[in-house]
Request: fold
Amino acid sequence: MTPPASDVTSSSPSSSSASSSSRVPPWLTALWKRSITLFPLKLVGNTVATLGFFPLYFWIMKNAGQAWVLPLTPIDRLVAFWPWLLPVYLSLWGYIALPVLLARDMRELQGFSLGCATMTLLALLVFWFMPTAIPNFVVETTPGTSLQFLKMVDSAGNAFPSLHVSFSVFTCVALARQLRAVGAPAWLRVANVAWAAGIVYSTMAVRQHVLIDVLGGFALGVAFGIATRQRPGAQA
Reply:
């Protein structure tokens, strides 16, 4: 029996809507839902944490005792000075905000935030009680450029462990879990690792750190990445 014309007409919009929504990848929808969850808290918390970090970091750099200059390794001499990697170096502050933005609930948000805070506290204690510095590299910078400003503000102190590397590695681990949880495609997971690797390499390429700093920061980031892993029972 042929259904009434009104039923056919009323079913068409819903069918069209379902068809259009099916074109959006489920992982993209999941990332969007994560992004809007607790968004005001994420925005304010990340801003306050970032702005609050720098005064303490620079105060320790200025007031800590005599710094021990770290030795160079053969790998340090192989890494060329690439000033054009400065944008990659500075991109950390956008990269580290991604696990905050994509936290699915308060538990995940607190886990990442507490990991960053504890990792920062440990590094600052090392900076204070065992101050280190990188060698005085002869770097030519054009007056008025971002690189010259970086060299003036962020001097050679607070070298080991590299918090830049620690944050990058810890962020990479946390973001990898989030992407895996939503079933993100392989290319996006590879891009996550490539971004973190680029930041790590840039710390040496712009002459802000040496290999010893990088290894220390890498170990710290991996350790906290493992320590903040949620157990299956906690996830349930």
Strands lie at 68-69, 132-133. The first strand starts at residue 68 and ends at 69. Confidence is low (pLDDT under 50) at residues 1-20.
